[in-house]
Design brief:
Layout lengths: L29 H10 L2 E3 L5 E3 L12 H11 L1
Antiparallel strand pairs: 1-2
């Protein structure tokens, strides 16, 4: 009986990002962002989503479409 060795390249097939990395960022009142970052309380975004602030958005980060629409209506 003989055995064969199968060569497999070392590939990292994980496609997920870190669990706490948001897929999109939401619009939230500035004072609530600071409070949440310090105390860990939850914030309510313009779209209605509730979450604790864990990351800050960088320029060019994807933004929630529902938040964008609500914000556009508020500016009028």
């Amino acid at each position: 009986m003989t055995t064969k060795t199968i060569e497999r390249p070392d590939l990292d097939e994980r496609t997920e990002q870190d669990d706490d990395t948001p897929k999109v960022f939401h619009y939230v009142k500035k004072d609530k962002i600071t409070e949440s970052a310090v105390t860990g309380t939850h914030v309510v975004a313009l779209c209605g989503e509730v979450f604790p602030v864990t990351k800050s958005a960088k320029p060019g980060s994807p933004v929630c479409e529902r938040c964008k629409k609500v914000y556009a209506k508020m500016k009028k």
